[in-house]
Amino acid sequence: MATTVTLEKCGRNHGYKGLDNSSFCPDTQCCIVGGPDCINSVIDMESVCKRVTASGLGVAVSVSKDAGRYLCDFTYYTSLYLSHGRSAFVHVPPLGKPYSGEDLGRALQAIIREMLELLDQAEEKIQCQQHIH
């Protein structure tokens, strides 16, 4: 269980052995047969983490490379696969353990703002490179 607001860096394709709440587990133990083992988000989660932490919200933010090989990881990997890496997944601790809903809401707003800012900067770089060539 998360104790910080956790930015998931990547989704993993293999290792799904546990049953979900509906007693389902993929026969192949993977999300997408033939898909890459790991897909990273195009969003630089370390930068998002550093920028949000530096803003002084008082909510701990961390980066993870393993969303847990359960529904979260399965959903994230599938989303990353279908969006060619243009996806994000954030684990949030339970309310009151230790943060209030208001604190978590402020932290999530800041995280989303930083993600959008980084994506805007990446798009500007791509457009500049296209004009140069």
From TrEMBL:
Q: Is Flavoprotein tagged as a keyword?
A: no
Q: Which GO terms fall under biological process for this protein?
A: proteolysis
Q: Gene3D superfamilies recorded for this chain? A: Peptidase C15, pyroglutamyl peptidase I-like
**Family annotation (InterPro entries):** Peptidase_C15-like, Peptidase_C15-like_sf, PGPEP1_Cys_AS
Please list the GO terms describing molecular function: pyroglutamyl-peptidase activity
> Which domain of life does the protein's organism represent?
Eukaryota
* Chain coiled-coil ranges: 105-132
Keyword list, A-Z? Coiled coil, Hydrolase, Protease, Thiol protease
Q: What is its EC number?
A: 3.4.19.3
Enzymatic reactions: Release of an N-terminal pyroglutamyl group from a polypeptide, the second amino acid generally not being Pro
Q: Where is the active site?
A: 72
Q: What class of enzyme is it?
A: hydrolase
Record keyword Protease present: yes
Q: Which PANTHER family match?
A: PROTEASE FAMILY C15 PYROGLUTAMYL-PEPTIDASE I-RELATED (PTHR23402), PYROGLUTAMYL-PEPTIDASE I (PTHR23402:SF1)
Similarity comment text for this entry? Belongs to the peptidase C15 family.
The protein's name:
Pyroglutamyl-peptidase I
Species this chain originates from = Menidia menidia (Atlantic silverside)
